[in-house]
């Protein structure tokens, strides 16, 4: 029994470490994107050319907040909760919206040449996160059903 408890604690510590790493990576991406948008420095760069990057930066900041909220739940040993499932789906939806906005900018704004076809990656990642969020939601439902039967 003692090994089971220590195993569970170790698993929760590993999950907390992974969530912390994800939060650090997300915050680093926001910081790097902010520095990149500030250091463009060319006089000929208009605000229309920076619009896709600034939109992505805003989406990344919101995703960081959602990931930090999920990390808080994990630290309180609440992993399989509806809040975390909705957080994963929200991140996926935001990434999906970002991909769609990037595609619109790429097609209708000739000034925004810096984004190339990165919107495909955003759309694919958004669908992936939404799928993982739905699986997570199903896991929460199964966990709740199991808790009721015990």
Automatic annotation (TrEMBL):
**Annotated TM spans:** 15-35, 55-74, 86-109, 121-142
Q: Which InterPro entries match?
A: DUF2975
Source species, domain of life: Bacteria
Keyword terms: Membrane, Transmembrane, Transmembrane helix
What Pfam families does its record include?
Answer: DUF2975 (PF11188)
Write down what this protein is called: DUF2975 domain-containing protein
Its source organism is: Candidatus Bacteroides intestinipullorum
